[in-house]
Specification:
With 154 residues, the chain is α+β, with helices and mostly antiparallel strands. The chain has a single domain, classed as Arc Repressor Mutant, subunit A (Orthogonal Bundle). The protein is 42% helix and 12% strand. It has a 3-stranded antiparallel beta sheet with strand order 2-5-4. It has a two-stranded parallel sheet with strand order 1-3. β4 (103-108) and β5 (111-116) form a beta hairpin.
Length: 154
């Protein structure tokens, strides 16, 4: 029987890594994301864009969708999802201010529109909406980072 060569000892942990081979592409590519209703990452992106719209003028939801899809090339924002975020914002406005003039959703001759009131109370309010969604995003990321397994155990 031939003599076996000694095997290296095995221990937990990776130890130091060697330099990457020349030409190895960075693994920073992200998978595409289809925006979903009630997702804080989706809502945060939509609210951030709505916060920058011209005030006091109806804007087509389709134009908002187009801008989102052009801005976030690795995301796909369906019109229904953007409309859901707009409806949620409208409901939040009605809860906070007891009127519907702040966020107006209507069917226009070229499709559904959103009009945001041109007043000094809109900017601080919409910033609070975005802050709440950003906090929800951070909470979801923190919860994910605590998982040991993809199935949620740990």
């Amino acid at each position: 029987m031939p003599a076996e060569s000694p095997s290296p000892s095995i221990s937990p942990g990776l130890g130091p890594l060697r330099p990457a081979p020349a030409g190895l592409p960075e693994p920073t590519l992200a998978p595409p994301v289809v925006a979903e209703s009630d997702d804080p990452f989706t809502t945060h992106r939509v609210v951030a864009l709505l916060a920058r719209l011209e005030r006091g003028r109806p804007v087509r939801i389709a134009d908002v969708v187009d801008r989102l899809n052009a801005t976030y090339l690795d995301w796909l924002f369906p019109a229904a999802v953007v409309a859901d975020v707009a409806v949620s914002l409208q409901a939040n406005w009605m809860t906070d201010y007891r009127n519907s003039s702040g966020i107006v959703l209507e069917d226009g001759p070229y499709g559904a529109t959103i009009e945001i009131e041109d007043s000094s109370r809109v900017d601080p309010w919409i910033v609070r909406q975005a802050e709440r969604e950003a906090a929800a995003c951070r909470e979801r990321l923190a919860a994910f980072s605590r998982l040991d397994r993809p199935t949620g155990e740990g």
